[in-house]
Amino acid sequence: MEAEKSNRCPLHGGGVAAQTLVGRLLAGVVGSQHVYGSDAPAGPLGVWLIDDRGAVVHVTTGSDGCLIVEESEPHTGYDMGDSGRVTVGAIGNETPFADHLGESILAVREEHEPNTGRVALEISFPRGRVRCESWAEDLRLTLM
Q1: Is the pLDDT of residue 3 over 50?
Q2: What are the strands of the beta sheet with 78-79, ordered from one edge?
Q3: Is the four-CA dihedral 90, 47, 40, 103 of positive or negative sign?
Q4: Nearest to 61 by CA among 71, 72, 73, 47
Q5: Element of type H or E holding 107
Q6: pTM of the complete model
Q7: Beta-bridge partners for 112
């Protein structure tokens, strides 16, 4: 009998089980963005979903194209010299999550690739869904 393949990312592990998001009330969203010169910020590079009890789940992409979902606090921004800087702060109104602030998460659905692990996560709210996916190693958030 062939062993069942793991949905874990070979480089980053399995992270937090997405099902633990169900029932949480989305109270805030913090994001990281890349800023280069006077250009508009690019991103988000990652988002931290904050529930009404202060628990935080970070959603970002890995260098291997996986979608990382982990429990971690937002880090501070940093300067990358000639390559710009990364800023970190509240961006709830600048993401598809803005329409769902104050709503509870009803369900989650994950998609996996055999060699990468998790590549997408759909989060369902009472008034719609947000799809988080790794796209060419970038985080793409889509209102569904």
Answers
A1: no
A2: 67-70, 56-61, 42-51, 26-35, 85-90, 78-79
A3: negative
A4: 47
A5: strand 107-113
A6: 0.91
A7: 118
What does 120-143 look like in DSSP terms, one character per residue?
Answer: EEEEEETTEEEEEEEETTEEEEEE
Task: Tell me the pLDDT band of 6, cut-offs 50, 70 and 90.
Answer: low
d(CA 125, CA 25): 9
30 vs 52: CA distance, rounded Å: 14
Query: From CA 67, how far away is CA 60, in angstroms rounded?
Result: 6
Distances in Å between the Cα of 110 and the Cα atoms of 7, 18, 130, 143 are 10, 8, 12, 16
Q: What angle do CA 127, 128, 132 make, to 5 degrees?
A: 145
